[in-house]
Amino acid sequence: MQINFEDERPIFIQIAEGIEDGILTGGFAENGQIPSITELSVNYKINPATALKGISLLVDEGIIFKKRGVGMFVAPGSVSKLRAKRKRSFFEHYIKKLVAEAKKLEITSEEILGMIERGYKE
User: Fold this and answer.
1) Which helix (H) or strand (E) holds 38?
2) What is the per-residue pLDDT for 83?
3) What is the C-alpha separation between 95 and 19, in angstroms, rounded?
4) CA distance 24 to 81
5) Which helix (H) or strand (E) holds 107?
6) CA distance 13 to 54
């Protein structure tokens, strides 16, 4: 996970997304422990409150849970929950814009599919 202090996204969002990425790629297994607030704040040289805010987003979404006195863990079913969330976001942020631009350029859906296929091959 990397934090980009020049990024327009707040650091706590980058923390949450970095942990999400770790869950999706298998870096953090379901029922496995994630780094503590202290570890995150020390490793990335950020305020512990900022790390807590990122973790809290994931707790609120049911992606991670706290075991009192032990730490934070990835909730069962988090991978499928995150995939569904990211697919919805992908559609909203990328596909809708792609289709709108394609319509302006009079690109057919078949042409778009061909371009996507070409992109997967490259």
Assistant:
1) helix 37-44
2) 97
3) 24
4) 10
5) none
6) 6
Contact 11, 50 (CB under 8 A): yes
Question: pLDDT at residue 65 above 90?
Answer: yes
Read off the DSSP letter of residue 33.
B
Distance CA(94)–CA(75), nearest Å, equals: 28
What is d(CA 106, CA 95) in angstroms, rounded to the nearest whole number?
A: 16
54 and 12 in contact (C-beta within 8 Å)?
Answer: yes
Angle at 42 between CA 62 and CA 51, to 5 degrees: 30
Question: Is pLDDT above 90 for 2?
Answer: no
The H or E element spanning position 25 is: none
**What is the band of 84 on the pLDDT scale with cuts at 50, 70, 90?**
very high
Report residue 121 CA to chain centroid gap: 25
Residue 9, burial from CB neighbour count under 10 angstroms (0-12, 13-18, 19+): exposed
- Which two three-digit tokens encode residue 63? 């992606």
Question: Is the four-CA dihedral 65, 88, 51, 1 of positive or negative sign?
Answer: positive
